[in-house]
Amino acid sequence: MVFQRIFRREQKRSPEEQEEQSRRIEDGVKRARSSFFGRLAVLFQRTQITEDLWDELEELLISADVGVDTTLAIMDRLRARYGRGEFRTAEDLSAGLQDELIGALSPAGEPRPLLDDGLTVLLIIGVNGVGKTTTIAKLGNYFRREGRQVLLAAGDTFRAAGSEQLEVWAERLGLPCVASQTGADPGSIVYDAIGAARARGADLVLVDTAGRLHTKTNLMEELRKIRRIVERHEAESRSLLVLDATTGQNAILQARAFAGAAGLDGIIVTKLDGTAKGGVVFSIIGELEAPILFVGTGEKVDDIGEFDPERFVGALFARETE
Ligand code: GDP
User: Fold this and answer.
1) Strands of the chain, DSSP E
2) CA 173, CA 259: separation in Å to the nearest integer?
3) Can you give the pLDDT at residue 322?
4) 132: CA distance to ligand 1 center in Å?
5) Is the residue at 95 inside a domain?
6) Ligand 1 geometric centre to CA of 166 (Å)
7) Are residues 160 and 196 part of one domain?
8) Neighbour count for residue 260 (Cβ, 10 Å)
9) Under the phi-then-psi rule, with left for phi > 0, alpha for psi from -120 to 50, and beta for the rest, what region is 191?
10) Is residue 4's pLDDT more than 80?
11) 231 within domain boundaries
12) Of 80, 105, 130, which residue is a domain's last?
C-alpha cells in the first residue's frame, strides 16, 4: 500500500479520501491520456497482434517520453511473454502492457518509510522552476492534515524571492516558517529550524533548498553538509527530489546529478497536469531506484496526490467516457 511507503504506521483512509486521491491522479493525467496514451487505446482496437502493432507500440512509448531504455526493456518482456503464448489478442497484449508499466513503477524491495515517529527533516531538492516551493506548501498542508506538526524552513538562501515565496505560503497556510537573510549559510538555517521544531514540539521540518544548476559542484556539497547537520542533531533526514514532468527525459538527467549528492529517498513529479506525454515517470525508477511518492497535479495547495502505480496506469488507460 502506498501509505506505508510514507508513514511507518498504517494510516486509516475513508473511502471518500481514497476516491479523492484517485480523482486527483485521473485529473492530472487527462492531457496525457487524451494524446499519447489515447493513441494506445486506438492501437489496441485491432484484434490481431501483428509486426506493425509491435512497431507502432514501441514508437508510441518512446514518443510519450517513456525513454528508449525503459521502452526496449518493456518491449523485450512483452515479446518474451508473447513467445510463451501468454497473449493471443491485441486486448491481451494491452493488459500485458499495463502489468509491465505497473512493474516499471514499482521499486524492487521495500523502501524504508519516509517518516519516522520522531523528528524528521525532509530536504526538498531539485533545480529552480520545477515547483519545489509550491510542493513544500502542498506537502506542509498534506502532512498537517495527517496529524503531523509541521515547520517550514527557507533553506534557499541563494534566491531572495525563493524565501519570500515560501514565507507567503507559510502565512497563508498558518504554518511556522524559519527564514534568514539572503546569502546566509543554509546549514545554519537548518540548524535553527531543528531548534525551533524541538522548542515547538514539531515533528516534521520541510526544507526548501537552493536549486542552482547541478553543474555547480558546491550545491551538491551544500546538500551533503545539510544532511550531516541533521544527523548530528539526532533527527532523521530524507531527501526528496522534485522533477517537472513537462521537461521529459531532461528530468532524468537532472535526477542523476542530484542522486549522487543527496542519496534520494523519494521522488515527487510535478506538473503532471501540464504534459501531453507523462511517460517520463516510467523511466524514473529504473534510473534512480527511488520510489515516486507524490505527484503534483496543479498550482493549488490541494493539487497533490500520493502516487500509486496501479491507480496511475489505470488512469492512463481509462476510457474517456468512464
Ligand atoms: P521552484 O522554483 O522550484 O521553487 O518552483 P515554484 O514552486 O516557484 O513553481 C514554479 C511554477 O510552477 C509556479 O508557477 C507554480 O505555480 C508552478 N507549479 C508548481 N507545481 C505545479 C503543478 O503540479 N502543476 C502546474 N500546472 N504548475 C505547477
Assistant:
1) 120-125, 150-155, 177-178, 204-209, 236-244, 266-270, 292-296, 304-306
2) 31
3) 44
4) 7
5) yes
6) 12
7) yes
8) 11
9) alpha
10) no
11) yes
12) 105
As for ligand 1, residues whose beta carbon falls within 6 Å of it are: 128-134, 211, 270-271, 273-274, 296-299, 303
- Least confident range from 10-14, 189-193, 248-252: namely 10-14
pTM: 0.89
Query: What is the per-residue pLDDT across 179-229, written as a single tens digit (0 to 9) for each?
Result: 876 667 778 888 899 999 999 999 999 999 877 644 555 777 778 888 888
Task: Give, for ligand 1, the residue of 25, 123, 130, 134 to mutate: max count of ligand atoms closer than 8 Å to Cβ.
Answer: 134
Protein residue with least CA distance to atom 16, ligand 1: 299
Q: For 133-147, what is each residue's pLDDT tens digit? A: 999 999 999 999 989
Cell 542522486 sits on residue: 259
13 domain-assigned: no
Domain with 36 in it: 28-105
pLDDT classification of 108: cutoffs 50, 70, 90 = confident
Nine-digit cell at 144?
498537517
